[in-house]
Automatic annotation (TrEMBL):
It comes from Lebetimonas natsushimae. It is found in: Membrane. It is a multi-pass membrane protein. The chain crosses the membrane at residues 21-40, 52-72, 84-107, 127-147, 159-179, 185-206, 226-244, 264-283, 303-320, 348-367, 388-406, 412-428, 507-533. This is Phosphate transporter. Residues 428-473 form a coiled coil. Its main location: membrane. One of its GO terms (cellular component) is membrane. The keyword Coiled coil applies. The keyword Isomerase does not apply. InterPro entries: Phos_transporter (IPR001204).
Amino acid sequence: MQELQTLSKIEKKIQKKSPSSIVKIGIALFFIAVAVIYAYTNTGNVPNDVYLLIAVVFGAYMAMNIGANDVANNVGPTVGSGALSLTGAIIIAAIFEASGALIAGADVTNTIRKGIIDLHTFGNVEIFIWAMMAALLAAALWLNLATYLKAPVSTTHSIVGGVMGAGIAAGGFNVVHWITMGKIAASWVISPIIGGIIAALFLYAIKKSIVFKDDKVNAAKKWVPFYISVMTWAFITYIIMKGFKHIWGDVVAFLPFPYSKKPLFWEAAVIGLIFAIISYFWLKAKLNKEEIENTRKGINKYFIVPLIFSAALLSFAHGANDVANAVGPLAAIADAVINGGISAKAEIPFWVMVIGGVGISFGLALYGPRLIKTVGKEITKIDPIRGFCIALAAAITVIIASQLGLPVSSTHIAVGAVFGVGFLREWLQIVKKEDKETENELKIAEKELKNVLNELEVLKSKENKQKEDYKRIVTLMEKEDVLNEKIKKLKKILKKEIKAKYVERNLLWKIVAAWIITVPVAGVLSAMLFFMIKGMMG
C-alpha cells in the first residue's frame, strides 16, 4: 500500500538522521554512570552500598526501557495521525513524563508489586535484595527484547512477572497469591477489548454524525464541541484520579471544608464536568465563526489540538503512576539497604524518582521511535479523528476499570484501541466511504468515455465526411485512449484498496503473543537471575 511505502521512506530518513547504535549505547551508559554517582551522593556511606549501587544500575536501565517501550503508546497515535512530528512528540512526552514522575509521583509504593507474593518468603534482608534486583533486571531485559522485536508490552506485567519469578525461586510456588495473579491475567483480555470497543464506538459515532454527512461543516459545528467536551471530561477526571492522587492534599489544601486524602471518583467527575461544559460553549461559539472545507480533511483539523493535549496528559499520568511502579523494586532495595529491614511499604526517595523520570526521557529519545512507529503507523492507518478516538478510549477505559477495581494495563488499552479503529475500518469497508472522490472520478470518466464512443460511432457512420469530421474523429480517438488509461488506473487503485486489510495481521499476532508470554518470560528470567546472584553473593 502507498501508506506503507511512505512509512518506509520516512523510516529511512529518520535512520539517516538519528545517532548510530554505538552513540546511543554510549549516551545510555553515560546516563547510568551519572545515575550511580547521583544516587551515591544522596545516600552517603551506608552498609551494603554496593548492593544499592548495582540496583541503581538496573533501575536506570529499567527506566530507559520504559521510555523506549511503554511511552510509545501515549504518543504513537499522535505521531501516526500527523498531529505531531516524531521529534515534537518525543519532546512533549519526555517533558510530561518526567514532570509526572517528579511532581505527582508516588511517595509510597508496595515493595512487593501488587501484593503477588508473601513477604515472609524472604528469610533475611539479603535474599530480599537479591530477589528485587533479579526482578528489576529481568523486567528490564524483557522490555529491551520486546522493544527490539517492535512489540509494545506492559511494564507493570513485566515487573509482576519478575517479582513472581524471584519469589518462587526464593520460597517456592506456595508464596504466590494466585488469586491476584488471576486478576492480572484477566486484564490481558479485558484491557484491549474494552479499549478497542470504546475507540470503535466513538469512531463509528463520529463517522455517522459528521464524516458520512453531505453537509460536513454544519454537522461538525454541531457535534465537534460535544465530542471534545466528552474528551475534556474524561481527561480531567483521568488526570485528577491518576495524576494528582499522590498530591491531592496539597492541591486542595486551601479549601475551607473537609476533603478526602485521595480524589474520589465523584469529585474528579464533577470537576471534569465543569471543564467539559466550559469547553463545549467556548468551542460552540468559536466554530460558528470559522470557515472550513466540507471534506474529511477539513473536519480532521478540529481534532489535532485535542489529540496533542491528550498525548501530554497521558504522558503526565503515566509518569505519575507507572514509573513509580516500575522503580518500586529499586525503592524497596534502597529501603532495605538503608534501614536494614523489609517493609510492606517503602517511601520512594526523590532521587529514585529523578532516575526514573529522567531515565524514561532518555530511553524515549534514544529508542522510542521504533515503538512509536509501530503503534502509530504500522498496525493501521491513523488520522486525527481515529487518534482522537484512541486517546479518548484510553482515558475512559482506565476510569471504568478503576471504578470496577480491575487491574488494567495502559499499554494493552492503547494498543487494543488502535486495533479497534482498524477493525472498524474493515467492517465498514471504509475505502468505499472515504474514496468517494475516486469513485465519482471513475463514474465521470466512464460517462465521458461513453459519450466519446457514441460520438465516434455517429461520425464514423456519417457519409460524405468533411475535413472537420476527420479532425474530430482523431481528437475523439486520442481522448478515448486517455480515458481508457485513466479508467484503468482508477479501477486498479480501488481494487487494490478494497482488497487491502486495514490491520496488519502479522503485527496483531506478534503483539498478542508478546502479551501472553510477558509474565512467564519475565518470571523465568528473574528466577534464573536470582539463583545466579545468590550463587555469586553466597
